[in-house]
Amino acid sequence: MNLKQFKQSETNSRLSALLVRDDIGQLVVGARGKVFTLSLDDITKKTSEVRQQRFLPPFIAIYNECDNFIRTLHTMEDGKMLVCGTNAFNPSCDYMTFNNGKASLEGNLQEVFFSSNKYLHGPNPLKTEMKRSCLVEANKNSEGGDDDYVILFFTESAVEERHDNVRVSRIARVCKSDLGGKMTLQKKWTSFLKARFECPFGDVGSPTLVQDVFLVQDQNNWKDSIFYSTFTSNSKSAVCAYKLSDINQVFSGRFLTESDTGSWETYTGEEPFPHPGSCISNETRAIGVMTSLDFSDKTLLFVRNHPLMEGMVTPLTGKPLLVQTGTQFSKIVVDQVTSLDGQQHHIMLIGTDSGWLQKAVRFDGEDSRIIEELQLFQTPQSVNFLQLSLKSGQLYSTSSNIAVQINVRDCTHYTSCDDCLLARDPYCGWDQIRAKISYNPFYITILKSLTDGDISMCLTSDCKLSIPLGNTVKFLPCSPETNLPVSWHFSGSIHFPGPQHTVLSQGLIISPSYSDAGLYTCETVETVRGKTHRKTVVQYFVQVHDNNAVVRNLKTAVIALAAFTNLLLLMCSVFLIRHIKANKQNYSGHDNKNTNNNELITKRPFCHYDQTKHQHKEEEQPVQTGSVISILILPEGYMTFRTKNQTWTHQTKGQFSTDLKSIP
Q: Which CATH architecture has domain 1-112?
């Protein structure tokens, strides 16, 4: 994992804001009393720093929160950056420019909107009641001449619930041109309406609280833009998606009103015109309402008494896109990507309170699935900010004192065709000819099956390992490179945990008996559109040996081998004795008589051995009697023959006779 890190050296300088500026190649970071910039290519390089300190009385400065924490960084249309800080609970803003590699503050306050713990800030601050909030600008280039509005997401105690202190998630809408009322709601919002923001998951009765929101704008129709939001509920977390047109429909609906008994009911009376909470439009201008100061007291009183909508904003799919137990989601950003198969996908990048990043994607007709999990910080700490560079694909994140940079579009960890296709990562494709991962959509050899995850076109590989086991516990590791569930098979059948087998996330523990010997297979399992794809990760051929039995068998084998050797030596001795006796009988019964000159005499070697038992054989040499030159009779029964070419000796054993007349 190619991760770069920048650590703030000052112990009390807490990182509190983050902004990616692709146009100038800078990562802008807000901290305690200052703003500094880092290179987008390499955040270990600081490029500039500017301070926005507030000089406070000593009795106030000793409190950590009584300082100027930079909370908001926003790029304006002219390229300037809006920098807003807490300023010891007295929020203030300034403009910052970046020229010639150096950042500088202007000191000129303009009309702005700022979301802090309890305020939306401008030249004339207007107060609203919120506990936790995030702010998103929406409705650009709207039809009908409507002014732009801002959407807020926050949590608060539910006034409509009979039980006290029930926390709920809210969504609210405020017009950017809202100046407050002339007489009624002076310096108060005249367009502020709120509704319940629902993401149905978790235990019954447990609140689901919004943590972060990211807007994916539709370039063709802003009403089709989608909000992605993270929620937590006790030990569970979820991601839900909402369509902007559905949100607008809720704010155009009916209102709740508080009855005399304290309960909240649907308001059925007459509503003023224009619809309460509406922004200035061509329709309002036609009746003489040019600003919020022109609204009638009747309209403003209705807004003050009926801020809560009857309808609830519910998810686009009717349920969460992703739910996890034991994980606390914090931040989210969404990347729009066209995969190598030409399809559009939204990839969710989700930070957790333990410093991990989850990369998830949802395909049509399926639940979302986590493609990859990455650890951003070495020690567990919450992901406070996430910002994505659309230009480079680099993701930037911060904790309280560390900023990190990572390429979320990296595909090098997929080392095989199977891993790449089964992961179904829209960023990646597999080049079949070059047998490696590829980012180039123009290679015609790239495999791009994301919808089905079809790995039939990949070359298969078989990984087998034989492990002899003694009478002990053995661990069989299985660590697939992809984030897919695994299953174990034993001799072709699905393996379930039992008294002698313990299935862990990283492998299988065996306490073997003789019946446990066989082939164990660990494989990843992925179901796509009802079709199950399995890929073997590793195989173990397990042999179970009894060590004591091995020793006993070895002793038995040694004894048997010794007995066999002795028997073989005895048989060889008997055979050799019989062979010697047979040779003696053959020579004693031999009578060489020649009746004519053409009779053959057989020559035998002096040291004779059985020619049928050996590969090395001396051929019998027939000699015609007419070729003999002389015969010499030697003592002890030997006779020497001499011809023109050779001489040899023959044993007669006292029984040799010949007809000398036949020899010339």
A: 7 Propeller (2.130)
- Record: fold of 464-547: Immunoglobulin-like (2.60.40)
Domain 135-210+242-318 falls under CATH 2.130.10.10: yes
Q: What is the pLDDT of residues 225-268, one digit of tens each?
A: 999 999 999 999 999 999 999 999 999 999 999 888 888 899 99
- The whole-angstrom separation of Cα 564 and Cα 553 is 16
* Antiparallel, parallel or unpaired: β 256-258 and 236-243: unpaired
Which residues does 290 contact at the CB level (< 8 Å), separation at least 6? Answer: 280, 284
Say yes or no: do domains 135-210+242-318 and 464-547 share a fold: no
Q: Determine the Cα–Cα distance for residues 90 and 68; give it in Å rounded to an integer.
A: 9
Query: Region 570-593: what's the mean pLDDT?
Result: 67
CB 451 within 8 Å of CB 437: no
Burial class (CB in 10 A: 0-12, 13-18, 19+), 240: buried
- DSSP helix/strand/coil, 88: coil
Q: Structure tokens of 169?
A: 């998630």
Arithmetic mean of pLDDT, 534-546: 76
Residue type, 515: S
- pTM score, whole prediction: 0.67
Report the distance separating Cα 335 and Cα 328, nearest Å: 21
Question: Which residues 6+ apart lie within 8 Å of 440 measured at CB?
Answer: 431, 446
Q: Please provide the average confidence, as pLDDT, over all residues in the chain.
A: 77
List, for residues 436-493, the tens digit of each pLDDT value.
Answer: 666 555 444 455 556 666 666 665 545 444 555 555 678 888 888 777 888 888 866 7
Pick the closest to residue 126 from 66, 194, 176 (CA basis). 176
Rounded to the nearest 5°, which phi and psi values hold at 187? 55, 25
CA dist 559 and 576 (Å) reads 26
Match 């399992």 to its residue by tokens. Answer: 525
Q: Contact at 8 Å (CB) between 94 and 109?
A: yes
Residue with tokens 């009697």, as numbered in its chain: 625
Give the count of beta carbons closer than 10 Å to the beta carbon of residue 406: 20
Region of 636 on the Ramachandran plot (φ > 0 left; ψ -120 to 50 alpha; else beta): left
**Before 485, cis peptide (omega within 30)?**
no
Provide the b/e sequence for 387-398 (b: ≥16 CB within 10 Å). bbbeeebbbbbb
Can you give the residue ranges of every domain in the chain?
1-112, 135-210+242-318, 464-547, 600-662
Q: Per-residue pLDDT tens for 31-77?
A: 988 999 999 999 999 999 998 755 555 555 445 667 888 999 999 88
Distance CA 135, CA 133 (A): 7
Classify strands 102-105 and 464-469 as parallel, antiparallel or unpaired.
unpaired
Asked if residues 408 and 349 have their Cβ atoms less than 8 Å apart, the reply is yes
Work out the burial of residue 517: count CB atoms within 10 Å of its CB; fewer than 13 is exposed, 13-18 middle, 19 or more buried.
middle
For residue 98, what is the enclosing H or E element? strand 92-99
Pairing of strands 394-398, 385-388: antiparallel
CA 153 → CA 59, 132, 231, distances in Å?
A: 35, 8, 11
User: Looking up tokens 């992605």, which residue turns up?
Assistant: 228
In one-letter notation, the amino acid at residue 362 is R
Q: What is the DSSP-derived secondary structure letter of residue 280?
A: P
